[in-house]
Design goal:
56% of the residues lie in helices and 9% in strands. It is mainly α. α1 packs antiparallel against α2. The longest helix has 37 residues. The model has no long low-confidence stretch (mean pLDDT 85).
């Protein structure tokens, strides 16, 4: 393995661990789909006649869901980059044009899947 890729792998593994911890703080793995996360909800734990508490819990759930969606996107990007490094195929190569991704871009974002030209 390229020494630089080894360095990126270490960074990605550390980030993946942090992302998993953050995901667990706002959600849980979907029991029906291990690749999916769902926001934690305490809505069912409240009395239906307490409108204020229902609104608070709903707001909390929506906030958790929004945070979870962003974390899950990044989590999947990091996992994909690690899979490419581990397989020895495709890491550091733009998924759109097939050109090498600038090393400075990978330094800034080791999970980058595209070159700057094809950035989302």
């Amino acid at each position: 393995m390229d020494p630089k890729n080894k360095e990126f792998k270490t960074k990605l593994e550390e980030e993946l661990t942090l992302l998993e911890e953050e995901l667990k703080s706002v959600g849980r793995k979907n029991p029906d789909n291990a690749k999916d996360w769902e926001a934690r909800s305490t809505i069912t734990e409240i009395l239906p006649n307490d409108e204020e508490e229902v609104a608070d819990k709903l707001g909390s759930y929506q906030g958790n869901n929004s945070i979870l969606n962003e974390l899950e996107i990044r989590y999947n990007e990091v996992k994909s980059a690690l899979e490419k490094i581990n397989s020895g195929k495709g890491y550091g190569v733009c998924e759109v044009c097939g050109e090498p991704i600038d090393p400075a871009r990978l330094e800034a974002n080791p999970a980058a899947a595209t070159c700057i030209k094809h950035m989302k």
